[in-house]
Amino acid sequence: MSDQVCIVDQDLCPVTVGDTVPFDYEFTLPDGSPMDISGMTLVFYVSLNPDYNSIVVQQATTFPAGSTDGMGGMKILPETTNKLTRGQCYFFKFVLENGPEDVFTVGSGKWEAK
């Protein structure tokens, strides 16, 4: 992951407190070919503020060996979305980690709970 891509904030659709929220991912290299994400960890953070010093939700998934096609997923369960407050707007980010020296924010924006 030596070439970084500039990420533009993209807001998520509002979430209903208590719902399951599935995320599917496709990671590609700058040339468009699939990225081998085997053993990498994707962390989803949700915070009350954009500096992430007030984390409300943190969930991680580590992609299994053989994830050479760049495809992965994460499911946020009702026990997690129940931690959100209806009417509150949150900040989120997805961080892809491949060890302590390879940490990349791959998505961020706002997320409203309803």
Strand order of the largest sheet: 3-2-5-6
Number of strands: 6
The helix tally amounts to 1
Instruction: Give the H and E element order.
Output: EEEEHEE
CATH superfamily, by name, is Purple acid phosphatase-like, N-terminal
Briefly note the CATH topology name: Immunoglobulin-like
**End-to-end distance:** 36 Å
CATH architecture level-2 label: Sandwich
How much β-strand is present in the residues?
Answer: 35-45%
Instruction: Describe the global form.
Output: globular
The overall number of domains is 1
Helix content: under 10%
Instruction: Return Rg in Å.
Output: 14 Å
Structural class: mainly beta
| CATH class membership | Mainly Beta
Largest sheet: number of strands, sense, barrel closure = 4 strands, antiparallel
Poorly predicted runs = none
Average pLDDT level: 91
Summarize this structure as a short list of keywords or feature phrases.
114 residues, mainly beta, Immunoglobulin-like, 4-stranded antiparallel beta sheet, two-stranded antiparallel ribbon, 1 helix, 6 strands, globular
Descriptive account of the structure:
With 114 residues, the protein is mainly beta. The protein has one domain: Immunoglobulin-like. Helix content is 4%, strand content 40%. It is built from one helix and six strands. It has one helix at 78-81; strands spanning 21-26, 41-47, 55-62, 71-76, 89-97, 103-112. The chain has a four-stranded antiparallel β-sheet, with no helix packed on it. Strand 2 (41-47) and strand 3 (55-62) form a beta hairpin. The N and C termini lie far apart (36 Å). The mean pLDDT is 91.
